Amino acid sequence: MKRPASDLFYLVFNNLETGIALCDTRLQILLFNDYFIRTCQQFFKRKITLKKALPERIRKSLKEIIDGPLLGKMVRTVISPHGEEFFVTMKRVSYGKKSFLLITFHKKVLRQQEIFEFLRTGYRITEREFEIINCIKKGFHNKEIAGLLKISINTVRSHLRTVFQKLDVSNRTELIGLIDEMLA
Prior knowledge:
This protein is α+β, with helices and mostly antiparallel strands. It has two domains: 5-107, Beta-Lactamase; 112-183, Winged helix-like DNA-binding domain superfamily/Winged helix DNA-binding domain (Arc Repressor Mutant, subunit A, Orthogonal Bundle). The chain is 49% helix and 20% strand. The chain is built from eight helices and five strands. The protein has helices at residues 5-13, 34-44, 56-67, 112-123, 127-137, 142-149, 153-167, 172-183; strands at 19-24, 29-32, 75-79, 85-95, 98-107. The protein has a five-stranded antiparallel sheet with strand order 2-1-5-4-3. Helix 5 packs across helix 7 and helix 6 (142-149) crosses helix 7 (153-167). It starts with a helix and ends with a helix.
């Protein structure tokens, strides 16, 4: 039996890794996927149920976007009550004479290049120090790092001391914890 197109749409819609909601121009929810609920629960760190209204904190950020001058470039970072960063994006879409808002909502996850840029600008971490951080993250020992990067063990130790000092950590475990926190 062939599935109707609407069933296929909902199957795909609910398996996306981004929370999506379709709202009217007054920000009343018309449609949302399962991941949108999960992301809202991550945001508030509690179970929530969505009926027709968006959570107030998210609604406020979206309202600022709508009222702002650029409705085309609508990406906003929203800080959760627990200090975590989430991205909210919004795009105006039309169907016939009706106008809707397509909203995506997901937790901010830093990629390796973004982490390097953050560490480079915020903590003055060099490219070589970042290579060593990556090796530490992968579980390599100093001797393995030295061989891989073609530098001496003493140079590896020197870079590690500098990294620990710049990032205000005492050991490899704290360093890995800090990087994992950035990736979470």
